[in-house]
Amino acid sequence: MKEYFQFDKLGTSYRTEFTAGLTTFLAMAYILFVNPSVLSDAGMDQGAVFVATAVAAAVGTLLMGIIAKYPVVLAPGMGLNAFFAYTVVLGYGIPWETALSGVLASGLIFIVLTLTGLREIIINAIPHNLKMAVGAGIGLFIAFIGLTKSGIVVADEATFLAIGDITSPTVLLTIFGLVVSVILLTKGIRAGIFYGMIITAIVGMIFGLVPIPRGIGDIVGAVPSIAPTFGQAFTHFGDIFTIEMLVVILTFLFVDFFDTAGTLMAVATQAGLVKDNKLPRAGKALFADSTATVVGSVVGTSTTTSFVESTAGVGVGGRTGFTAVVAAGFFILALFFSPLLGIITTEVTAPALIIVGVMMANQLKQIEWDKFEIAVPAFFVVLMMPLTYSIATGIAVGFIFYPITMIVKGRAKEIHPIMYFLFVVFVLYFIFLS
């Protein structure tokens, strides 16, 4: 085992790798409760989604650790689950079963692009500024969802949006959880989001806002049935061949593609694994990610992707795929803690959504705001996601404006042909929606 993962070469040990795996798991364990909470809003069975989340994370992480040998952990991605639930299902009125078929299709396309080597062409075709804008826009969208789900921000007839009733006990509990999580993360505690959820849940129990466990059965129990979601991606696969679903699939694919590439580079760079500005075994890493998306769609969850929280494990010394193997083991163990779904309420999970949004918004600094032809499409990507409650719409508007501003500026030669294709697709998307 030590030889396979090259412990001696990378200067690590079983103890260090185990600690790193546990640290990464704790840093992202919130997804086990946030993902079911988000997808249940789309009508999916919460217990089944909990199991699907853990299974997809375990399988994807094991593949990443054993095949690609990277200390990177995977799970259903934040942002993509929100797009799945609030845009595709609730916004477009598409059944969640069909949406799962879209996730499956995007995963299969991702695998083909990885095996054929076309991934590099796709990555290079999308301008860096727009990639950063997409990430930041998703961050604002996620934070907005957290603010509205918790009641901190509410609808208003006069101003469209307004501050909610901050004297409401449930809203106060969310605000408390947000403050606690911010303090923990500011202090450098890697698992601050997860610990913040635990503290918030305990305080909620004290004040009667969160159900109190009446015994061990309310904490640990049998694994819920996955039957309500398992295999549904196959039953509606024939319904994905529409312009609307094409845009949905492209959105799933793009976000997963860029999120994975960026996360892998960030984690590998921090771990000192990047050589000559290239990522060794990149194909294997992307294959693990895309396969995890396919597995996740089959068992019943939105797109599975690499988590930037993997840097938490690298920060304590994780350098090999054994870190991922350890984290995968904890996800399997987590299957028996589904009763906690009754305790981890919306007020407890909302702060996690808001804070993840803050973290993703840091990509705004990498956009060339001083160049108007870049600023316009980037701004529309970022702005339109939360305002239209749709990641796809934000991407579509920005990708339509990009070739227009670049051509007018005299920079047409810098536009990749794929961007012109996407321009046409997104124009047809709006025509179809109208």
Automatic annotation (TrEMBL):
Topology term for the membrane: Multi-pass membrane protein
Main location: membrane
Transmembrane regions listed in the UniProt entry: 12-34, 46-66, 73-94, 100-118, 130-148, 160-185, 192-213, 233-255, 320-337, 343-362, 374-403, 415-433
Keyword Ribonucleoprotein: no
Keyword Cell membrane in record: yes
Cellular compartment(s): Cell membrane
Keywords on record: Cell membrane, Membrane, Transmembrane, Transmembrane helix, Transport
Family: Belongs to the nucleobase:cation symporter-2 (NCS2) (TC 2.A.40) family. Azg-like subfamily.
This protein's name: Guanine permease
